[in-house]
Amino acid sequence: MQIGAQLFTVREHTKTLEDFAAALEKIAQIGYTTVQVSGTCAFEPEWLRDQLKRTGLTCCATHRSPDKLTADTDAEVAAHNTFGCTYIGIGSMPSAFDGVADAYERFKTDFRPVAHRIAQLGLKFMYHNHAFEFAKTDSGETYLERLMSNFSKEELSFILDTYWVQTAGCDPVWWINKLAGRLQCVHLKDISVYGNDARMAPVYAGNMNFDAIIEACGNAGTEYLLVEQDDCYGADPFECLELSYRNLKSKGL
């Protein structure tokens, strides 16, 4: 498995192309060899291709605009081919926070054709979870389970966010095992406690059982362990990425 950096962590440092290029340099200097591109300024595919080559990085996955994916799926696939990325991700189910049941039906209608077309063109559509996907449907299954059944394994895989699984009151290891075979990418971020408040933390700086999580990922066929920290609470996000990287490397990764 390869350790990668989720660029959403440093999104405040990728608002211009100049800053984006500098951020890629810093991440490469830490030791990361691959990134997930998410939360950045707009860029041309050729620009990203050249920046990745310059820094020695690859792009293993993205989070793309839902509107762009539905409007011109072929163009999105062509862009990913330009900068050498197989996994086209979406960061969330559109409008789910306003009512997951209705949002799910819209998502299924809008994105089954997208997922099918991406698969036809040789890439893979990836869904990233938060906590709401673990709400129970009327039938008693979670919405994440419904995604598994309504989209084929060939058309949809998952970028499982272990932090949000744990936040939802679920067991990340259990879900990693359940998603085996369609879990090429996993997001790693830890949970620390401040009083009664939970906070995001660098990997192995909090309370999550990452030894068991990483072992399960290896058994599930995961290719990329992607470090993400949405909120660094005033700390330098590059330093947070570096601490996570050092901690993971100390485990033999």
Please provide a written account of the structure.
The chain is α/β, with parallel strands linked by helices and 253 residues long. The protein has one domain: Divalent-metal-dependent TIM barrel enzymes (TIM Barrel, Alpha-Beta Barrel), CATH 3.20.20. Helix content is 42%, strand content 19%. It is built from 10 helices and 10 strands. The strands form 2 sheets. An 8-stranded parallel beta barrel has the order 1-2-3-4-5-6-7-10, surrounded by 4 helices. It has a two-stranded antiparallel sheet with strand order 8-9. Helix 5 links the parallel strand 4 and strand 5. The chain is globular. The termini are close together.
Describe how the helices and strands are arranged.
Blueprint: E1 2-6, H1 17-30, E2 34-37, H2 45-55, E3 58-63, H3 66-71, H4 73-82, E4 87-90, H5 100-120, E5 124-128, H6 143-150, E6 156-161, H7 162-167, H8 172-178, E7 185-188, E8 190-194, E9 197-201, H9 210-220, E10 224-227, H10 237-249
Parallel strand pairs: 1-2, 1-10, 2-3, 3-4, 4-5, 5-6, 6-7, 7-10
Antiparallel strand pairs: 8-9
Helix pairs in contact: 8-9
The average pLDDT value, as a whole number, equals 96
Distance between the termini: 7 Å
Which fold name corresponds to the CATH topology? TIM Barrel
Tally the structural domains: 1
Specify the helix fraction band.
40-55%
Rg for CA atoms: 17 Å
Count, helices: 10
Q: Can you say what the CATH homologous superfamily is? A: Divalent-metal-dependent TIM barrel enzymes
Structural class from helices and strands? alpha/beta
Q: Give, in order, the helices and strands.
A: EHEHEHHEHEHEHHEEEHEH
